[in-house]
Specification:
98 residues, mainly beta, four-stranded mixed β-sheet, 0% helix, 58% strand, elongated
């Protein structure tokens, strides 16, 4: 089971985007932003949970391109084998000058 479910990216303006995604209600996430258009969403189970819930909640955050580019990646905890390792969901790269 993937921790990150539906992912949607909406364009707000030429360089701003709204990212919407669903994760289980017993998971947390934090956003790493390098201020250069690279965003990494890291999703982990909330202790003491060992398996993800089947109930999902929606989260939203706004992003801004840097130098006409933006990169959004999702990392999730690999809960089935090793709680410390991470599995990468697809990385979205958007060129805003097209």
């Amino acid at each position: 089971m993937e921790l990150v479910d539906k992912i949607n990216i909406d364009r707000i303006s030429i360089e701003e985007y709204k990212v919407t995604f669903d994760i289980p209600d017993n998971c947390d996430f934090y956003l790493q932003d390098d201020s250069k258009g690279n965003y990494d969403v890291i999703v982990t189970l909330t202790p003491p949970a060992t398996i993800p819930s089947s109930s999902y909640v929606t989260h939203v955050f706004d992003t801004k391109a840097y130098g006409d580019n933006i990169s959004i990646s999702f990392d999730q905890q690999e809960y089935q084998t090793n709680l410390a390792s991470r599995k990468i969901k697809p990385v979205f790269r958007i060129a805003t000058d097209c």
